[in-house]
Amino acid sequence: MNSLPSWLTERCPPWCVVVHRDDDPPVDRVHYGEIAEVRGNAGSDEALRVFLRRHTDEPSVSVGLSVGAEDHALEPAAAALLVDAVTRALDQIRDPRAVRVAAAGNPVAATESRNCRSDGVGRQGIEP
Hints:
The chain is α+β, with helices and mostly antiparallel strands. The chain has two domains: 1-74, no CATH class; 78-114, no CATH class. It contains three helices and five strands. Strand 4 and strand 5 form a beta hairpin.
């Protein structure tokens, strides 16, 4: 059984897939979860990578999103809002009328509607 590196004061979270070593520099002392890659962006061969991460000196977990060299961290509550927004966008593709009714009073939907052009066509050209 492997012992913990001297700098690691507690066991890894159950989702951590990193093998930590005594000689890890402080910047690399991070718990990472398994990476899920999402491919299929038109005109690009880069994948969107989604993963959990937590620096060993910090108590909070974030959801990491990265494409190429760009890296973003979302708090879990913000990641849940992103999932909801993507789900609503996909629902709108399937049945735009149902989304309009279901989104009434939703602050994210209100923000989305302000981003539509005056002719009623959404930013991605999807008819509402």
